[in-house]
UniProtKB/TrEMBL annotation:
It comes from Deinococcus koreensis. PANTHER family: ACETYLORNITHINE DEACETYLASE, PEPTIDASE M20 DIMERISATION DOMAIN-CONTAINING PROTEIN. The keyword Transport does not apply. Its cofactor is Zn(2+). PROSITE patterns: ARGE_DAPE_CPG2_1. GO terms for molecular function: hydrolase activity; metal ion binding. It comes from the Bacteria. This is Acetylornithine deacetylase. InterPro entries: ArgE/DapE_CS, Bact_exopeptidase_dim_dom, Peptidase_M20, Peptidase_M20_dimer, Peptidase_M20A. Keywords: Hydrolase, Metal-binding, Zinc. The keyword Cell division does not apply. Transmembrane segments: none annotated. Residues 169-275 form the Peptidase M20 dimerisation domain.
């Protein structure tokens, strides 16, 4: 089994781990999880598999400290998005310092950096444990990290999603909502009997647009800008010649650190209640999913340690940054683990051409190795 970074990353990319919840019938994480566990065990590192759902495997590996030190969790996801329109997705190719292939950037590069850093923790004489969670299903429902957090904890965590070697200390969360307006079905020639649920949804959409403007006018988060809301899917009506009985709208609200699901519920109530002054208007709202935003204080020990070690290794202080998209880091933070996101450089997440910069993966590995030595000493 490979020891050098390019060989290790090539092996990881060549193993199909497309998320089967995104792409029905896809391979899933099992083969890659077994391979990663085997790679670790071959190096004498304790590794166990965690099955969040049938066939949906994560790997938990631990290099135990001698006791009394702080523990650090490295976290990377095993799954990738699909490989449509990407003929050589699983045939990694190295050119001009870049490794091309599905998952190279999101995020097998970060996973390779974690594996090599964990290997480096062996024999380093650390007092604290270093733990790796290589998790399933980040690209869909985060089953892997949620299941793994039932078995492990740590004093701090580093998620190695790609950040171009910047230090990500915040990302947005999101909530999903379903609004249904209820009309009354009737023959299209009988306005005296019918109530148009789709037209009533038009009133909701008008309110939604005003809600979006309101969010854009609030004080911005220093790293993430503004919260936002948008309509995503709409469905309504029975047939062309009838008044529609109901209309359903699905909405996504992107949230900032500090915004709670309870506050957002109250915003929806305030948005819909003026419409209810019309007795013919009837609507229901429900929140269908909450994914918390993420933010870690800049003076948290893990932020300070990683920033200090990265400054030494990269010869410059990494920029503190925020990411617009959601990551597993929010689950780690919600479990009480002080978390940062730091990973390599590249491009093409979820695109037809995906690559990671190999030098930056090596730098990421070096920063992780130095950080765990400093943090778990
Ligand atoms: Zn990712």
């Amino acid at each position: 089994m490979p020891d050098t970074l390019p060989e290790l990353l090539s092996a990881l990319v060549s193993i199909d781990s497309v998320n089967p919840s995104l792409v029905p019938g896809a391979a899933g994480e099992a083969a890659l999880a077994h391979w990663v566990a085997g790679w670790l065990r071959e190096r004498g590192i304790e590794a166990v598999l965690d099955e969040a759902a049938p066939g949906r495997l994560s790997v938990i590996a631990t290099v135990r400290g001698s006791g009394g030190g702080r523990s650090l969790l490295l976290c990377a996801h095993l799954d990738t998005v699909g490989t449509d329109h990407m003929p050589d997705a699983l045939e990694p190719r190295i050119q001009d310092g870049r490794l091309y292939g599905r998952g190279a950037y999101d995020m097998k590069g970060g996973l390779a950096a974690c594996l090599l850093a964990l290997q480096g923790a062996q024999g380093a004489g650390l007092r604290g444990d270093v733990i790796l969670a290589a998790v399933a299903d980040e690209e869909y429902a985060s089953l892997g990290v949620q299941s793994v957090l039932g078995r492990i904890t740590a004093d701090a965590a580093i998620v190695t999603e790609p950040t171009s070697l910047e230090l990500c200390v915040a990302h947005k969360g999101f909530t999903w909502h379903e609004i249904t307006t209820f009309g009354r079905a009737a023959h299209g020639s009988r306005p005296d009997l019918g109530t148009d649920a789709i037209a009533h949804m038009g009133r909701v959409l008008g309110q939604l647009e005003a809600y979006g403007h309101d969010l854009g006018s609030r004080a911005p988060h220093p790293l993430l800008g503004h919260a936002s809301v948008h309509a995503s899917l709409i469905q309504g009506g029975q047939e062309l010649s009838s008044y529609p009985e109901c209309c359903t709208l699905q909405v996504e609200r992107r949230t900032l650190p500090g915004e709670t699901a309870g506050e957002i519920e109250r915003e929806w109530t305030a948005l819909l209640s003026p419409l209810a002054s019309d007795p013919a208007f009837r609507a229901e709202h429900r929140t269908t999913l909450v994914r918390e935003p993420f933010g870690v204080p800049v003076d948290a020990p893990i932020v300070q340690t990683l920033r200090g070690q990265a400054t030494l290794i990269l010869n410059q202080t990494p920029t503190l940054t925020g990411m617009s998209f959601w990551m597993d880091s929010a689950f780690l933070a919600a479990a009480g683990i002080s978390t940062v996101v730091f990973g390599p450089h590249g491009a093409g997440a979820h695109s037809a051409e995906e690559w990671v910069d190999l030098e930056s993966v090596g730098q990421c590995r070096a920063v992780l190795a130095a950080t765990l030595r400093a943090f778990c000493a």
